[in-house]
Prior knowledge:
This protein is α/β, with parallel strands linked by helices. It has five helices and five strands.
Amino acid sequence: xxxRNILWSAASALGAAFAASRAEAATEATANTKxxxxxxxxxxxxxxxxxxxxxxxxxxxxxxxxxTIALVVHGPALKAFHWAQANPDISKHVGDFxxxxxxxAACGNTMKAQNVTLTDLLPxxxxxxxxxxxxxxxxxxxxxxxxxx
Length: 149
């Protein structure tokens, strides 16, 4: 075997070993990193659908400990979360999500427009003071994947 072939074989072997180690590191990092997802909800007619999606997401990954989820609600959809008007299914979902660590953010601008405070909403909500769309952008800049069912 001449020197050129020996050098080429050595370089190829080193490259393959490096690629394999990087692939293994990427797989380990993915396995050890919780996925972060933000759901965007503004359509009143999609409230039950989105809450079902979030529950399916939690169930699909094997529980809330395997995913970090935020729900940002603004516009007409927020009315479904007023404690005085919420149906029992929505109240149950919100209670379960709150226990599971799902961030439930209500748009501060929508709250002002609807003349409600956090005490008027189901327990577990926090106020997105700067607005729902600002909170969505903040979460996306923190690596959250954006879903708008």
